[in-house]
Amino acid sequence: MTGGHDFLTIGEASALCGLSRSALRRAVARGHLAAWHTPGNHLRVGRQDFADFLRSLGAVELAGRAEERLQSRTTP
């Protein structure tokens, strides 16, 4: 669960957009999706970077749905 953070795990991002974790990791490796590694070597993606990535794919509708899901998860 996102817990109100400004980032997503690769698993959370994958669940939101329907792309596999591997596909998202490839996007990061190719520089299409900004991400960083935690000290434990886990990937994290900024929420806004993720929405921008989806828009860059032409998935504007999907990006909107992902943003709605993100907001509903953080709203008490």
Provide a brief overview of the structure.
Helices cover 55% and strands 12% of the residues. The protein has four helices and three strands.
Characterization of the model:
By secondary structure, the protein is mostly helical. It has a three-stranded antiparallel sheet. The chain has helices spanning 10-17, 21-29, 47-56, 60-74; strands at 7-9, 36-37, 43-46.
SSE topology sketch:
Blueprint: E1 7-9, H1 10-17, H2 21-29, E2 36-37, E3 43-46, H3 47-56, H4 60-74
Helix pairs in contact: 3-4
- H-E order: EHHEEHH
| CATH class category | Mainly Alpha
Tell me the helix content: 55-70%
In the CATH hierarchy, the architecture is Orthogonal Bundle
Largest sheet: 3 strands, antiparallel
